[in-house]
């Protein structure tokens, strides 16, 4: 690797855990691409970071739209030539009070579109670029609710199956990639964001700290694993 800054791309980087990941990666000296489905919101977040002396690049990316993903990755390739780190963070949780067989099917489809097909299309666009350079670290922000044992508990079915599918994607993609590319999934814990709500015990800063070790693992590091706070957890 050259002396150039490593390039890290975060989806849904304008708020919540994604924003904190962007911030910490910038502090660590990465060239960070903050992606947001709403560029204005992304720029607002970047301005906030600028006030603390951190420069990040903003690129629009709606993970529900494969063309928007391809365009964003093309833009990043043109400007920076590479993506060394990808964090699939953007996600939605739409079915708190619902059950899978009775909820509006559109809720299941929208949840799958963002939480599964989003990371799937982002991976399809970014992995070839990583393989070209022989290096990449991918973190899929999943949830313990996507683990198999959660499927026997009623409730939040759309969210749970979307994260279960993301976990499957993590393992399959990890087995398929060539070169020094590591693809892992993490559970960030219950985090105080718009999604996690005001009662969540963990702050985004701590959640991001518990995730970012996976960015700097070496060639012998884990690939295709599921982690919380640095420990392996059950699929
Ligand atoms: P927030 O609701 O606070 O933030 C979600 C982010 O995802 C926002 O930036 C949002 O953008 C973005 N997003 C949603 N849909 C899209 C889309 N179609 N395209 C691009 N960006 C999109 O959630 P958190 O920060 O809490 O969650 C981040 C990740 O962590 C998610 O994957 C979530 O499932 C996971 N997680 C969170 C937990 C928690 O307790 N908070 C627990 C376990 C996992 P916009 O501002 O435009 O809406």
Automatic annotation (TrEMBL):
The keyword Plastid belongs to this UniProt entry's keyword annotation: no
SUPFAM superfamilies: NAD(P)-binding Rossmann-fold domains (SSF51735)
Record-linked Gene3D superfamilies: NAD(P)-binding Rossmann-like Domain (3.40.50.720)
MF (Gene Ontology): oxidoreductase activity, acting on the CH-OH group of donors, NAD or NADP as acceptor
The organism's place on the tree of life at top rank: Bacteria
Family per similarity comment: Belongs to the short-chain dehydrogenases/reductases (SDR) family.
Protein name, as recorded: Short-chain dehydrogenase
Organism of this sequence: Tumebacillus avium
Phylogenetic classification of the source organism: Bacteria, Bacillati, Bacillota, Bacilli, Bacillales
């Amino acid at each position: 690797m050259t002396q150039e800054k490593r390039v890290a791309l975060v989806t849904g980087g304008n708020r919540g855990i994604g924003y904190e990941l962007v911030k910490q990666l910038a502090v660590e000296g990465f060239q960070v691409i903050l992606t947001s489905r709403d560029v204005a919101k992304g720029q607002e977040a970047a301005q906030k970071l600028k006030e603390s002396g951190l420069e990040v690049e903003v690129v629009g990316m709606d993970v529900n739209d494969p063309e928007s993903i391809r365009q964003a990755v093309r833009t990043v390739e043109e400007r920076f030539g590479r993506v060394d780190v990808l964090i699939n963070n953007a996600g939605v949780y739409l079915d708190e009070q619902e059950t899978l067989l009775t909820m509006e099917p559109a809720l299941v489809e929208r949840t799958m579109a963002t939480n599964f097909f989003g990371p799937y299309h982002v991976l399809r666009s970014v992995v070839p670029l990583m393989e070209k350079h022989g290096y990449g670290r991918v973190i899929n922000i999943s949830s313990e609710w996507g683990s198999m044992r959660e499927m026997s508990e009623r409730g939040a079915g759309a969210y749970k199956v979307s994260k279960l599918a993301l976990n499957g994607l993590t393992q399959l993609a990890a087995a398929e990639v060539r070169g020094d590319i590591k693809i892992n999934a993490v559970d960030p814990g219950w985090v105080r964001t718009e999604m996690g709500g005001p009662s969540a015990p963990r702050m985004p800063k701590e959640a991001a700290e518990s995730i970012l070790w996976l960015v700097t693992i070496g060639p012998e590091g884990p690939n295709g694993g599921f982690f919380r706070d640095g420990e392996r957890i059950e699929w």
